[in-house]
């Protein structure tokens, strides 16, 4: 820590947070971090999302539970009833048992994270100059959680459809928990940040609450709050919700539809891939660049498991039978998307880990040697790959993801928009990310990035975008 920063943060100086913010403004923004945002007007987007996201999640539950998944029917009823009576009639009711069950499950995941051994992996150099260690044991702990769930179901100790049957209560429990995590981490950033140089304050408390202040908040040295919440309540929760709604379909209709099987296969591949490659995930924007606020805290505990499992939720109430041709085409499309997604991500990771000395599509990787500065002014080197998938488009990994999302949703047929929410959301998110990420990369790498953009002209798909 440089001496000026040490002085600003020493307890005697008081008001450390305000002083740190001034210090950051003096340093200027770097890597796409805006150093100053107007308190309310600058945070308009954050305010809109703080309101819209919980409403979307609750609306999905109401539409599925009361209107056969029809958003149009739900909105017509809202129009006829008026907000007050509609809310009274359909708003999910919180239950103490669901809340206790949810919190116990998160606590169990936390206990497993501590108890189960895992390899130590390091993340990338942060803007503040930190290289953090992570305990990687998500695959093991998630297998334990999911297998225990399945065994308890087959042994008759619990009903596998219990999550689906208590869905409104569990949904509300996760929403409350997501808010608690967001509030606690916001306060923690002000009172006891883990890595002060990677903590930022924008001047807008609303923006800070939404986007986060700390980059990688931790309890103690190793317990990474961000990685834990994305992986355990997020990805592992998604798997369990899927299983539970599949069980509900079997109980309601006496069969499991081929569309549900396809959804379980796709989601299963995506989730296992995440845990299998958990060390790769340390180098993604979520971990390496995005701060931990409502966006990631509430997003990973609520938005991710609920919205991403919508296809399974929908099919539990509205089974769709896909013809063998559509079934095969959907599987081919989804697997093609997965192949692009995984191989593009793998190419980028290999090039960085092997310092460019690796093969990509059977040829030596072509890279631009780039440099960037971190907050203490020191200069570091990095590589920008421009062969393999990264020679076709600057975000080929997103293209694979979007193809997969299309295949996930196509399993539900075209009759309803609700299960397509994931595809619409992911496409918008990743297009927005293209711009957001490129703005940051331009700031980080300057002329090197410009050169890369001249060589690789397209963002997602050559000739299109
Ligand atoms: P990337 O993994 O593509 O990471 C972007 C970063 O990679 C950049 O900020 C830069 O970081 C580095 N980079 C950019 N171009 C190059 C290049 N040519 N060569 C080497 N490094 C480069 O993006 P994300 O973290 O957003 O996504 C990771 C995966 O996760 C994607 O496949 C995406 O589809 C998926 N995803 C899925 C979501 C979902 O909800 N389902 C949400 C978000 C992502 P640096 O500072 O290291 O140079």
UniProtKB/TrEMBL annotation:
Major localization listed first in the record, in broad terms: endoplasmic reticulum
Subcellular location: Endoplasmic reticulum membrane
Enzyme class: oxidoreductase
UniProt topology in membrane: Multi-pass membrane protein
Pfam families in the cross-refs: ERG4_ERG24
TM regions (residue ranges): 43-67, 99-116, 137-158, 170-187, 253-272, 292-310, 322-341, 402-431
Organismal lineage: Eukaryota, Fungi, Dikarya, Ascomycota, Pezizomycotina
Protein's UniProt name: 7-dehydrocholesterol reductase
Entry's family note: Belongs to the ERG4/ERG24 family.
Catalytic activity, EC: 1.3.1.21
Taxonomic source organism: Aspergillus pseudoustus
Keyword terms: Cholesterol biosynthesis, Cholesterol metabolism, Endoplasmic reticulum, Lipid biosynthesis, Lipid metabolism, Membrane, NADP, Oxidoreductase, Steroid biosynthesis, Steroid metabolism, Sterol biosynthesis, Sterol metabolism, Transmembrane, Transmembrane helix
């Amino acid at each position: 820590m440089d001496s000026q920063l040490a002085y600003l943060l020493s307890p005697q100086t008081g008001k450390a947070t305000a002083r740190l913010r001034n210090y950051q403004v003096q340093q200027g923004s770097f890597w796409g971090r805006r150093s100053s945002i107007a308190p309310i007007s600058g945070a308009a987007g954050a305010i809109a999302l703080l309101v819209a996201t919980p409403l979307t999640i609750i609306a999905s539950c109401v539409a599925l539970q009361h209107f056969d998944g029809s958003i149009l029917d739900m909105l017509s009823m809202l129009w006829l009833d008026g907000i007050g009576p509609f809310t009274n009639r359909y708003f999910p009711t919180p239950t103490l048992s669901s809340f206790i069950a949810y919190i116990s499950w998160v606590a169990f995941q936390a206990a497993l994270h501590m108890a189960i051994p895992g390899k130590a992996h390091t993340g990338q150099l942060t803007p503040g100059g930190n290289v953090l260690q992570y305990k990687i044991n998500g695959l093991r702990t998630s297998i334990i959680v999911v297998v225990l769930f399945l065994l308890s179901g087959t042994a008759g100790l619990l009903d596998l459809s219990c999550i689906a049957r208590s869905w409104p209560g569990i949904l509300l429990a996760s929403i409350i928990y997501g808010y608690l995590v967001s509030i606690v981490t916001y306060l923690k950033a002000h009172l006891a940040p883990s890595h002060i140089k990677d903590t930022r304050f924008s001047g807008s408390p609303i923006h800070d609450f939404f986007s986060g202040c700390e980059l990688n908040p931790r309890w103690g040295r190793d317990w990474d709050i961000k990685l834990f919440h994305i992986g355990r309540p997020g990805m592992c929760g998604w798997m369990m919700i899927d299983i539970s709604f599949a069980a509900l379909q079997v109980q309601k209709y006496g069969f499991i539809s081929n569309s549900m099987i396809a959804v379980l296969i796709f989601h299963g591949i995506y989730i296992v891939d995440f845990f299998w490659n958990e060390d790769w995930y340390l180098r993604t924007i979520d971990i390496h660049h995005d701060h931990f606020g409502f966006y990631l805290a509430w997003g990973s505990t609520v938005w991710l498991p609920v919205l991403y499992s919508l296809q399974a939720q929908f099919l539990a109430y509205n089974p769709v039978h896909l013809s063998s041709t559509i079934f095969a085409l959907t599987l081919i499309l989804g697997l093609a998307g997965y192949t692009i997604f995984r191989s593009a991500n793998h190419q980028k990771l290999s090039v960085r880990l092997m310092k460019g000395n690796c093969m990509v599509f059977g040829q030596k990787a072509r890279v631009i040697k780039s440099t960037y500065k971190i907050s203490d002014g020191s200069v570091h080197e990095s590589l920008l790959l421009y062969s393999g998938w990264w020679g076709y488009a600057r975000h080929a990994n997103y293209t694979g993801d979007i193809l997969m999302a299309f295949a996930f949703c196509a399993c539900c047929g075209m009759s309803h928009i609700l299960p397509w929410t994931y595809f619409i959301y992911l496409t918008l998110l990743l297009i927005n990310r293209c711009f957001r990420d490129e703005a940051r990369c331009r700031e980080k790498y300057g002329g090197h990035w410009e050169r890369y953009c001249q060589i690789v002209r397209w963002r997602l798909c050559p000739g299109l975008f």
